[in-house]
Amino acid sequence: MSFLSGFIAIIGPPNSGKSTLLNSLIGSKITITSPKPQTTRNRIVGICHGDDHQMVFIDTPGIHQTRSLLHKSMVSSAKASLKEVDIILLVAEPMHVTHDNEMLELFALLEKTDKPTLLAINKIDLVKKENLLPLIESYSKLHSFDAIIPISALYGGGLDALREELVKRLSPGPQFFPPDMLTDKSEDFLIAEIIREKIYHETRQELPYSSGVVVEALDEDAKRNLLTVRAVIYVEKQSQKGIIIGKHGSMIQRIGRKARMELERVFSIKVYLELFVKVEKDWSSDSRSLRRLGY
Ligand SMILES: Nc1nc2c(ncn2[C@@H]2O[C@H](COP(=O)(O)OP(=O)(O)OP(=O)(O)O)[C@@H](O)[C@H]2O)c(=O)[nH]1
Ligand SMILES: [Mg+2]
């Protein structure tokens, strides 16, 4: 039997669990997640290796009504990913069955493609059993999906069924990536993202959206099994800098501690993390600053 492979775009409204799903499918944390919408900002590739197949997933920012330049770049990267792939995997939540603007925009995008399109209804751990079938039925009326699979990305339900449906639709093709490669992103990127994830978890209102993180220096001391990281958190206003630092530095210490613990878990190494905060005025609406921050 020949080797099967394919590219799969994971798209959906913000916060539906796209990144959580990718981490579960890969079995390793390669993309960050948070309870706040618009967490993912870049297109992130995750590679799933099977004995006779390889699935290359593309995690995308949630499709939403655009505001800032940053949001425009996020949404256009999500839309562009549809063109590069063989299979489209829409991840939605039970409540998305309503015709909100985000869903309408997504269905309009799907109408334009003839690629196999699967729907994963995520977070079914929150749905009563008797409501599941009616939910699937309502979704099937909104678009003619090739398959609808109820899943729980966080708790693991339905993932084998989803994998099976995806593998079925792969075509004979090469192994695009070596078997030990899980993502296309660098270590620096994942480290910056994990720090940004903690900002999403610890701060409120506009702060997560006004923050960007850049790793400025990395130094690995193999003998001591120690990774030293120096990173800068960019915010847009002086007042935001005050909030990120917090009273007597309490907020930045908390963000730093949580990020360090996660980094130590992900990389199995002791981490020394130095965090700095800088103001870069209105970076999320300035194209030069956006590029500098990697968007
Ligand atoms: N109960 C429950 N929560 C989930 C499940 N999957 C994801 N979540 C939660 O939903 C929230 C959003 O998850 P993400 O994976 O960041 O969602 P996303 O679609 O990548 O979001 P954006 O990148 O902002 O578009 C997080 O708080 C997750 O823990 C699930 O199966 N069940
Ligand atoms: Mg995401």
Describe the protein's architecture and organization:
With 295 residues, the protein is of the alpha/beta class. The protein has two domains: 4-172, 3-Layer(aba) Sandwich (Rossmann fold); 187-292, K homology (KH) domain (GMP Synthetase, Chain A, domain 3), CATH 3.30.300. It has helices spanning 18-26, 69-84, 101-111, 129-142, 159-168, 187-202, 238-245, 250-267, 287-292, and strands at residues 4-11, 44-49, 53-59, 87-92, 117-121, 147-150, 171-172, 212-221, 226-235, 270-279. The strands form two sheets. Strands 1, 2, 3, 4, 5, 6 and 7 form a seven-stranded mixed β-sheet that branches. A three-stranded mixed β-sheet has the order 8-9-10. A hairpin with a 3-residue loop joins strand 2 and strand 3. The protein is globular. It starts with a strand and ends with a helix. The model has no long low-confidence stretch (mean pLDDT 95). Magnesium ion is lined by residues 18-19, 39-40.
Lay out the secondary structure:
Blueprint lengths: L3 E8 L6 H9 L17 E6 L3 E7 L9 H16 L2 E6 L8 H11 L5 E5 L7 H14 L4 E4 L8 H10 L2 E2 L14 H16 L9 E10 L4 E10 L2 H8 L4 H18 L2 E10 L7 H6 L3
Parallel strand pairs: 1-3, 1-4, 4-5, 5-6, 9-10
Antiparallel strand pairs: 1-7, 2-3, 8-9
Helix pairs in contact: 6-8
The structure holds guanosine-5'-triphosphate and magnesium ion (MG).
The site of guanosine-5'-triphosphate has 25 residues, from helix 1.
